Amino acid sequence: MNKKLLFLASALVILLGSSFNHADNVFNVIVIDAGHGGNDPGCNGGGSKEKQVTLSIALKLGKMIEDSLKDVKVIYTRKSDKFIELSERGNIANKNNADLFISIHCNANDNKEAAGTETYLMGLHKSENNLAVSKRENNVILLEKDYKTNEAYEGFDPNSPAGHIILTLMQNAYIAQSAKFASNVEGEFKTNTSLKSRGVKQAGFLVLWKTAMPGVLIETGFLTNASDRKTLSKDSGQMVIAKAIFNALKKYKKGK
Fold first, then answer.
1. Is 146 a residue whose pLDDT tops 90?
2. pTM of the complete model
3. Domains in the chain and their CATH numbers?
C-alpha cells in the first residue's frame, strides 16, 4: 500500500468515525467470543492454554449478563473446546443482529516481563507491537484449510502489513462506540483488578473485520508473565476479570 492510499484510508477512518452518532448505547444482543479453541490452543504459558482461559472468562461474563441484565440476550461463538473459523465468529454476530461484539484473548511475549491488559478496536497500527499482536491473532486463519479461497477474507494475506491496514476500513462507522467501551474496560481493569492496564489500542483484527456493530478484542493479560498467569489461571482471577468487563458493559449501556 503506497503512502497516498494510506493517508486517504486514515482520513476516511477519522471522518466517518467522528461523524457517527452514538447518543445512546441501548442494546439487546451481545456476542461473546472466546478466542481460539479446538486444534488452535492460542498462546501458552506455565501449563496454561489461552483457549481454556478465554472460554472460562467468556462463560463467567455471559452468566453475569444473563443473571443481571434480563433485557440483554447473550450469544456465544463457542461454549466448548471447538475450533471456530475467524470469519464465522463475525458472521455469528451479524446473523443475530448483535449490538456489541466482545472477543476475549490472552497475550504472549518473548519478554517474560511484559504484563498487563490491552483492549483493542479496529484502527490503524500505531506501533510495531500492535501490529505484532494482530498478526499473532490473525495467523489463526493458517489453520483453516481453505482460507485462501474463502471469499469472506477477500484475499487477505496474514503475512502482509498492508493487508492488516486494509482491515481497519471495515469498522470505521463504529469506532467512537468501540473506543468508549474499550476505555471503560481498561478503566475497570486499572481500578478493580491487580492487573496493569496497558491502555486502549488500535490494530487490524480479522475477527473484528466485518462485524456490523461496535466491537473490541480484549487481551486479558500475558500468559507468559508469571504474575498475570497466576490471575488468569485461577477461577477467582477469572471472576475478577469477568466482573471488570461486566462493570464496563453496564456503564456503556447507560451511555457513560
1. no
2. 0.78
3. 3-17+25-253 (3.40.630.40)
